[in-house]
Amino acid sequence: MRRAAGTNVWTLVARIARDVTTAYRFHVDPPTLGDTTEEMMTVLSDPERHAAFTAAYARSVRPDPYNPHRVADLADDSDEPQSSVLTMPAAVALPRTADVSQRIEEHRLPGGRRIDLYQPAGGGDGLPLVVVLDGEHCRRGLVLEHLDTAIAQGRVPPVRAVLWHNLSPTSRMVEMACNPVLPAALADELFPWLAARGQLPPAERRVLVGFSYGGLATAYTALHRPDLFGAVLPISPSLFFTPDPDTEPGEWLTRQVTAGTTRARWFLAVGRLEDIPIALPGVESGATMLSCARRFHQALQRAGADVVGLLEHPSGHEMFTVHAAVGQGLTALLAPSSRPADAPG
Predict the structure, then answer these.
(1) DSSP β-ladder status, 231-235 and 129-132
(2) Is 277 in a helix, a strand, or coil?
(3) How confident is the model at residue 341 (pLDDT cuts 50, 70, 90)?
């Protein structure tokens, strides 16, 4: 933003497409994660420094005082809405949601991890299973409420959903970084617990969903453990990831996609506003979340994977993209497959 000459008023002018819905906020003296990837990862992986950064970041946030329409952000640690909503004239109307808390059970798995178990209205046996990573953020971001609305409207068939919480804010950066620990935990901790309750359907009726780093972990799980899920929905996935920026170029996971590496059905989603260069070490100059998602989509198609959709939603790296992706993605992924049984992938 720029200060208007001779005043104490700061201004910013932006050109925005007529169909966009996005959230925005103001920051007053926000903290930084450092100037390098190493500094950023040090902060994000150290519990005390991460907590200090999160607290300082929260103190810097200001919603627009002249915009009464506010929402909670997926990345916030508070349920208090701190982001303001911008809805352009041609944007699709946001769906109304209802309280579903009476149909959500909180549980602890034997290893101590929290999960939230959602049941659709009317329950049912033999339902498909949808596992959503970053459960604490998605619970706050009303993902289950939007899923419930899509089911009530008949766009998505009834499903049982599990929100998979992170053990801690810092464990997320380790478990989701293309790490076999995460799919192993799903297979060894969650699935036996569900099976004991008679709530684990066959793999072809299971869907894994993840946003941002969780989207990266979702895509990795589908490639690393193709036996676990029959369908995957990576949303705004952090596909720029590299295990070592000094020796390995970014978009490492895209290069792992080859013929025969996946049997899953895929639906990818990304915000159309996610076109800002990432500018991290090891990442190709000019690469964005949007361009990385497009290249991953192309790699899947070249490998003969069963790709049922790529959604480029008129929003950013935020809950509006997640809400749209959950509705449209699950509609496509849970529809009867028209793919020949002997098709590649």
Answers:
(1) unpaired
(2) coil
(3) very low
Same domain, 164 and 67: no
Helix ranges (H only) for the chain are 37-45, 47-60, 135-140, 143-152, 171-175, 181-185, 191-196, 213-224, 252-255, 289-302, 319-333
| 155, 255: one domain | yes
320: domain CATH number is 3.40.50.1820
Q: What is the pLDDT of residues 153-170, one digit of tens each?
A: 999 999 999 999 999 888
For residue 197, the enclosing domain spans 101-333
Average pLDDT rounded to a whole number, residues 71-86: 80
Specify the amino acid at residue 186.
L
Q: What is the largest CA-CA distance in the chain?
A: 71
CA gap 36, 31 in Å, rounded: 14
Q: What pLDDT band is residue 37 in, cutting at 50, 70 and 90?
A: low
Same domain for 125 and 197:
yes
Residues 287 and 323 in one domain: yes
